[in-house]
Amino acid sequence: MGGISLTQLIIILVIVALIFGTKKLRNIGSDLGGAVKGFKKGMADEDEDTKELSGEAQNKTVEEEKQSSEK
Fold it and tell me: Rounded to two decimals, what is the model's pTM?
């Protein structure tokens, strides 16, 4: 009564391949892979931007502290 067995999974995959065709499934797979790759790249770019912004904020804070201590 548990999940799907290996035999049932294979039958489902064969039916899906017959309905959509292997070419369309390949296109869907490559589109999905490209979307995941783009998402990962976007997340990495955002992390770099965040690090740059936090570094700039720290530099401004240090400069403000130096200016206030010089007064």
Answer: 0.47
